[in-house]
Specification:
homodimer; about 100 residues; alpha+beta; Gyrase A, domain 2; 4-stranded antiparallel beta sheet; 3 helices; about 20% strand; EC 4.2.1.96 (chains A, B); lyase (chains A, B); PCD_sf (chains A, B); Putative pterin-4-alpha-carbinolamine dehydratase (chains A, B); Pterin_deHydtase (chains A, B)
């Protein structure tokens, strides 16, 4: 079973990502994205969805028009794991 | 400019939809959906996204794995309008 990261590990990993932060009230990481319009926002979500399915690791996310908020956590570990960092890194790579 | 529905109009329209209800703290309608898995949930979202873009009327929505919550309201009218009912009816038609 995958282990959740320690606070130190999590902080170290977040520091290497772009714009991600620890969620306020739970062991998760989150980032807000803003795009030109809905077309661009949903196109981004489609790319993340395909990657998430491939990883069998899915985001929690909210969208309204050009804005997307993504929260990542690993249910079975009840916290942030390397899987979340991997998905966050992919997301960063397509929004550079 | 599109006018928001009166309380009576809104209630009448909601009664003809499936599973939609008035949102708790704002003039909006919402519905929760549950699918077999993420593939089915995101496929549903893609169909709604294409319709929304065609209508130039976009949802606020949240997804985690097989669950989708959709809130509809019309920004420029600051409340529920016929556009929301139209999009809700389309969504109902693809989830029957």
């Amino acid at each position: 079973m995958i282990q959740k990261l320690t606070s130190e590990e999590r902080a170290g990993q977040i520091a290497q990502l772009h714009g991600w932060q620890a969620a306020a009230n739970r062991d998760a990481i989150e980032r807000n994205f803003e795009f030109a319009d809905f077309n661009e926002a949903f196109g981004f979500m489609a790319r993340v969805a395909i990657k998430a399915q491939e990883m069998d690791h899915h985001p929690e996310w909210f969208n309204v028009y050009n804005k997307v908020n993504i929260t990542l956590s690993t249910h079975e570990a009840d916290g942030v794991t390397q899987r979340d960092i991997e998905l966050a890194s992919f997301i960063d790579s397509i929004t550079a």
